[in-house]
Design brief:
Elements (H helix, E strand, L loop, with lengths): L1 H24 L8 E5 L2 E5 L30
Antiparallel strand pairs: 1-2
């Protein structure tokens, strides 16, 4: 029983590594993309990510601050 407890994490890790490998191979991205240095920093060129794929929401206003410039704070 002790040997099984010692081997179980290794077997699970090997199975997860196999699943991760298969997932990456079947991801469906023909061109992985590359970073190119531009005047204002690096830019991702190519790849499977389109500009609208990653949406970053506006940050929530802090309590006691005005949500927009020129609008008085509530409270």
């Amino acid at each position: 029983m002790t040997r099984l407890r010692a081997m179980a994490p290794l077997l699970v890790a090997a199975a997860l590594a196999g699943v991760a490998t298969v997932t990456v191979q079947n991801a469906g991205c023909d061109e992985p993309g590359r970073y190119e240095l531009r005047a204002d920093g690096y830019e991702l060129v190519g790849g499977c990510i389109a500009p609208g794929d990653i949406v970053v929401p506006d940050p929530a206003p802090l309590p006691g601050t005005s949500p927009e410039p020129g609008t008085p704070a509530k409270g």
